[in-house]
Inverse folding.
């Protein structure tokens, strides 16, 4: 680290320290009511106590400070619950007070927090999207309808492995698993395969998903020090927007293609076997204010990120 960089970092830390001290003085009357917790260091608070395995660190800290404790992560005060009894009390009897959540900086990429049920505050739109997800995406009828396609995709994976073993071909386990997962998901939503085992058609989609999942999973200084949000010091949002836009373009082209097919069929609402996209487009056609195109795209983005970024 050269002297210029060192001086720059020192100035930032000094600035944050002054802000933190002033803020702590203003909130001193409120912090007295916080649960017990480890004493925070200036500026950084208890961040370093989380370590590389936060779940283990929090479990260890709870043995010292109890099942309900407070930690200061940067300038953010966090309450940690590690008791089933207290968690039940919060989730069952105080669920409305704790339903909304703070939005991490990564949740604001491409204005995702304005359309996604994951980050929307509890309200009419959140309830509407939650109802749509429950009734159409994850209903028993919809999940049962996907049993046969899921079995077929697993059989294709086994056939691919068997064929490679007979022909003494190497198998890229990661790519084969991703191709299977992608086809299970794309058949559930779009009734089509988005990838093949012997081609790299899914490469762009896979790269974008993996890159975005990696960016979202990285610790972001702006989450611990909200004053830094406008500066994006690690460049995570700038990089994430590139991959998020790429994913939205891919999903958008699929949605637009389906809309054109439905328009040419002159049927309007789909009347045959419904996949998830048809069901969502039916709702959009009936009442666009209930479910807009942006709502559909962000819903598909969440599903893709969740299922395809699983290890």
């Amino acid at each position: 680290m050269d002297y210029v960089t060192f001086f720059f970092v020192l100035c930032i830390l000094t600035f944050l320290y002054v802000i933190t001290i002033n803020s702590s003085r203003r909130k001193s009357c409120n912090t007295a009511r916080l649960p017990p917790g480890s004493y925070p260091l200036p500026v950084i608070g208890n961040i370093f106590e989380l370590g590389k395995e936060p779940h283990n660190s929090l479990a260890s800290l709870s043995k010292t400070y109890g099942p309900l404790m407070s930690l200061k992560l940067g300038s953010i005060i966090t309450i940690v619950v590690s008791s089933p009894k207290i968690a039940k009390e919060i989730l069952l009897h105080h669920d409305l007070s704790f339903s909304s959540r703070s939005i991490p900086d990564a949740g604001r990429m491409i204005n995702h927090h304005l359309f996604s049920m994951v980050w929307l505050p509890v309200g009419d739109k959140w309830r509407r999207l939650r109802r749509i997800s429950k009734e159409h995406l994850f209903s028993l009828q919809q999940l049962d309808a996907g049993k046969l396609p899921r079995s077929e995709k697993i059989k294709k994976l086994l056939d691919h492995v068997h064929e490679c073993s007979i022909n003494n071909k190497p198998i890229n386990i990661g790519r084969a698993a991703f191709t299977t997962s992608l086809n299970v998901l794309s058949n559930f939503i779009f009734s089509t395969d988005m990838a093949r085992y012997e081609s790299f058609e899914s490469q762009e989609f896979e790269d974008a998903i993996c890159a975005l999942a990696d960016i979202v999973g990285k610790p972001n200084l702006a989450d611990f020090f909200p004053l830094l949000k406008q500066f994006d010091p690690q460049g995570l949002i700038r990089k994430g927007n590139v991959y998020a836009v790429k994913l939205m373009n891919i999903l958008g082209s699929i949605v637009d293609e389906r809309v054109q097919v439905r328009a040419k069929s002159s049927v309007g609402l789909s009347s045959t076997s419904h996949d998830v996209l048809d069901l969502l487009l039916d709702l959009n056609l009936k009442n666009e204010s209930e479910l807009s195109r942006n709502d559909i795209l962000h819903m598909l983005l969440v599903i893709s990120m969740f299922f395809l970024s699983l290890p």
